[in-house]
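This part of the workshop introduces the protein records we will be handling. A record pairs a protein's sequence with a compact description of its fold. Comparing a sequence with its tokens is the quickest way to learn the format. The record below serves as our worked example for the rest of this section:
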Amino acid sequence: MSSQGGGTFRVLQEFMDRDVLIKLKGGRMVTGSLVSYDGHLNILLKNAYEIVDPETHEKRPLGTILVRGDNVIVVSPVF
């Protein structure tokens, strides 16, 4: 997986090795450290967690995961 040209991919390059929050189709959310991505917006995260309940901040550990790009709605940095 590598960085690509274009606005979306230029922004993702800035998030490399940082924690990101990914909102997925179906309302699920995952967070983790951005390791890599490709031109299809497939995203590799390490130390990933699923956010089970945003109000209580309940998380479920997932480890290293690959998120398929066709499920991604939003990717944002975690501050």
